[in-house]
Amino acid sequence: MTTTSDLPVVVIGAGPAGLAAAAHLVERGIEPVVLEAGPTAASAVREWSHVRLFSTWGELTDAAAEKLLAPAGWTKPDPATYPSGGDWADLYLQPLADVLGARVRVGATVTGVSRSGRDRVVDADREAQPFVVHFTAADGEERLLAHAVIDASGTWTTPGPAGAGGLAALGEKAAADRVTYRVPDLKDPAVRARYAGKRTAVIGSGASAFTALAILADVARDEPGTHAVWILRRGISGSTFGGGEADQLPARGALGLAAKAAVDDGYADAVTGFRTEAIQRTDDGRVVLTGEDGRRVDPVDEVIVLTGFRPDLSFLSELRLGLDERLQAPVQLAPLIDPNQHSCGTVHPHGHRELSHPEPGVYLVGMKSYGRAPTFLAMTGYEQVRSVTAAIAGDLESADRVELTLPETGVCGGAGLVDDPAAGQADGGGCCAPAQSSVLVRIGGDAPAATAAGEASAGGCCGS
Q: Lower Cβ count inside 10 Å, N or C end of the chain?
């Protein structure tokens, strides 16, 4: 007779956290089934393969995964170097998926998770029932019974909108052909042609926005007429560009300095205190951004929206999750990662207890566990899955033990510079500044003057 404990653990997502969770489960003799919606392992990472990470190889691999890879002859890259997303996928994540073999199923999109025969309302005998994971694959709909579920699906597929209220701005969807929510690969000739010689609005104040400003400035140096308009919901303060040369993390400081150079050299204007309410087309096909206060930005050809990400919780609706009302992160974890109080370097390492829910046996890990907080660190995700898998195995002593020491300054979520191996991100490290008044500013020599003034609180890299 098969009992619930004999069933596999379903891991949703074959990204860094999901594959690491599978490696830890295998190490403990528990069979995982990894369901990845994309066509390959690390599909989301591959979508930003052109972007260089802000973390070194030494921070980007998991110990259990390394043990699993070793018999296959895998060699860890130089731990002091900075890989691109493509490097991370090709040199570590895909080899790990290959070693896991048939345990990883690609092209499998999870559509729902519940307790067998129990919707979220029913109490009777609930915890004795296995989980049922519904997913679609090439052959149609399928179901799997599971002992536990680890959701490591990330947040990549649900980026934040341009609208300041958390919803799409009026006209944003209609202008979809002019709007992107990712850092563009300007080494791709077709993508470069979209932005070269054009005027582009960049909405956001984190590391991804810094990266976009820096690469657009690189294009502008070769392509006359290329210009960026940096849309900031907050104001500019001393922390906006990070620590610069004084930063304890040189890679992080380099990214902030590159973005600052973009505006100082006249390749970008900064528009502060601007909360986008509408995106409207002009007669010539360009778009105009209108703020909540009625201000309008002169027409732009393209809009790059980099306002963060949020979790997709739709397929978990029949589970009893305990999520913070603001961050959409587990309630016990949320106070530890609140971006208003913490950078990633000040987040206390945490494990299964902080990640638990009223529904025993289900865990959100990796980026998804942070909900809307931007301060995630890969090493934190690896510690999460080590603790969670130990708890699933019944080894609470190991699950409760903290086996991670974070760097004091931290390395937050975001993107590094595309081409410079030494480049890093510019969030974190205690970057949150006190609120202060700020007005619309014009930075740079030859750029068009900005419009009317406005008020905004400072905050720089702590959120857009």
A: N
CA dist 266 and 248 (Å) reads 28
- C-alpha dihedral, 354 to 356 to 358 to 360, nearest 10°: -160
Instruction: Give pLDDT < 50 ranges for the chain.
Output: 1-2, 248, 408-464
Task: Specify whether the CB–CB gap between 213 and 256 falls below 8 A.
Answer: no
Identify which of 28, 432, 436 has the alpha carbon closest to the alpha carbon of residue 205: 432
How far is it, in rounded angstroms, from Cα 380 to Cα 144?
29
CA distances from 154 to 255, 347, 439 (A): 24, 19, 36
What is the phi-psi region of residue 273: left when phi exceeds 0, alpha when psi lies from -120 to 50, beta otherwise?
A: left
Instruction: Read off the pLDDT of residues 290-333 as tens digits, 9 standing for 90 and up.
Output: 999 999 999 999 999 999 999 999 999 999 999 999 999 999 99
User: Model pTM?
Assistant: 0.85
Task: Tell me how far apart the alpha carbons of residues 315 and 91 are, in angstroms, rounded to a whole number.
Answer: 31
